Amino acid sequence: MVFRSALVVTVVTALHPFGAHAQTPSANVAPSAAQPGDPVAGEIVVTAQRRSESLARTPVAVSVIGAEALQRQGIVSESDLQAAVPGLIVKAGSSSDQLNYAIRGQSLDAFSGVRPGVLPYFNEIQVATGGSSGFYDLQSVQVLKGPQGTLFGRNATGGAVLFTSAKPTNDFGGYASVRGGNYSHVQLEGALNVPIVDDKILLRIAGFFQRRDGFQHNLFDNSRVGDVKRENVRGSLTVKPSETITNDLVVDYAHSGGSSTSGVIFNIYPTGSTNAPAPANFLFTPAVDALFGPGGFQTYVAAHPGVDPDGIVAFTAKQNQRGPFLINVDSPNFYRSHNLVISNATTFDVGADTQIKNIFGYTHLIGRVGNDLDGSPYTVDQRGDLGGNNVIRQISNELQIIGKAFDRKLSYVAGFYFSDEKNDQRDLSVIFDILPFLPPTRQINSGITKNRSYAGYAQGTFDLSDIVGVEGLGITAGGRHTTEKASLLHRPDDVFILNAIPSYVTPQSKTFHKVSWQLGVQQQVNANLLLYVTSRSSFRSGGFNFYAAPVVGLGNDGGSAYAPEKATDIELGAKFQGDLAGMPVRFNLAAYTLWINDIQRVTYVQIAGAPAAVTVNVPKTKIQGFELDGFVRPVDWLSFGGSVNYTDARFTSNLVRVIGNPEVAFGPYPDVAKWSGGAFAEVSVPMSAAIRATLRGDVYAQTSTFYSSTANTLTPDTSLPGYSLVNVRLGLDKQEAGWSLSANLKNAFNKVYYVGGLALGNLFTLNTAVPGDRRTFLVEARYKF
Prior knowledge:
mainly beta, 22-stranded antiparallel β-barrel, five-stranded mixed beta sheet
């Protein structure tokens, strides 16, 4: 079975390893200048409300990480981000190139066809899905937590991740970086900033190059699996034809190659213990002699060199014993992507306090991935030579007005948004090769998915200080109306169309209309302390699952469609930034409850003899928890801090009709670690009058997670154990000369851990899991000029 890669394409950076929580503004307080690299004492400017304001005075929960931590911690991909952002989980599906963000229990099931619960933005445009990416020359990333239905173009029920590339400046300069490490790891990165016409035409060119050998060795063909090959280039041009007009154009191209870290078979159910329609625990074991006659299994083994002659059940035990980096899988493994992202933002200052802004976006993503979905040398389910193929094209435009009114007591933003997205997809699944008895099925899923979205929105923060006589009291309110049309066309070579069943209908389309809103109150108690309470409502649009049979109706009724998902939350927060006992201190606390109606979840079934994925709506869900992080610098040369996150997620009304099962109880809730968090300590001391040495240690830990929504019923044994990781960095820098040297050690104790998997137990009697990165080190020489 082949499904669409659901990875969130991102281009990311970091300003502090644990980020900084944002909470609320008094409308008249202007943000102070940011101090890069000083997460305790410095102010940071964010755009979480689509306008620039102080992080400490923004009435939403948001973590900010930025450019300096990329350099200091070697953050170059999605897998590096999890320890850097409190409450963020980066999970895998079938491989390391099928990734998804999860925040507050909101994520995305592999092959469900739904929008991600946490949406990525690059330079204010929402980017389409694709493959894993490399991060370079970025200014900041802001991770917004909770429903984001009012201000962001495609509604998200869990959060949004906002990535901003470094902009051209009026100074000639740049930087160059060379990194090398184990697994033949090489990275080259650099940028050149050129003011073509002083303060009028500014150009910046940046690039990134990466090569790294894979962590896995495949016994089946003596190959290496998981090689990384990336080449990226970005051009940024800022044009200021007048004092009131600015145009920022960014063209970003990324090419990726190599292969994917493979999922491995994690467990297999004992023969006879499941009602899976295609039991691998019978067909690929000596028990199959009961079907093909005495000696049948040995005949199969002789026809398939490389398979374990003891059968797949015994093989699973052997695989677990040797660990996930010495594997035995038979599918071709490859990963190719070509990603073009263009953003163009034009701002017009039409008054002292009013600005009109237009944001145009274009993305064109081509992806091709091949890997083994069953994690074994037996052809149960693999992508084969064709693999999974996507061509995604998206065009968007957003027109905003941003300003202040009523003697600057009201700060507001309003706008109109349009997006048109097309995903042209053709995937191959090679299923159950039992030659010489039965040939494999080469199943093609082929079609075009389209989504068109229109929205109008407005949001503002009003300073009530003079009206009620309470200094620093403000109220934030906003609303958005969205119309989204989803459609799906299956091509003639699609497996379900080939079956020519009269009840199948293609194309299918449906239009959805939804209102989202936000209402909150914030109190800037004094210069150091902020309190707020906010409630928000957002939705994920309905649509159609590409991998389901084109039957009219919702997945709950056996159809291919799924209904919109609605999320409503209430959040209370507090933030302190100031001095305690003469020490700079920053801490943030957010507690929340999130209610979700008709949450979108996938289940894997067999339809007319073909494996399929059906997206259903689970009636009610409740997620509650808290996020606490803090930092302190007791002396100039020492800083330390940490975070702790608690999430209690459960389906509160969980009975769903699933094809082949009249009523299934969903649960436990997946993609949530009940407890997660980390801590760091950093010592920075002068080695001479000009050279400074820095030693830093980070630890991250999380409890166990489930990667299936039906672990208590259809797909047991889909729990991944908790784990902890330790990272260490040693650096030397001479700021006046512009050079620095550093060494980063990640996963210092070489822990084996898993970051996701595929729950195929109710289809094939087996489940797979994808391992996280092994211990790696990178040594960097960097020069800034």
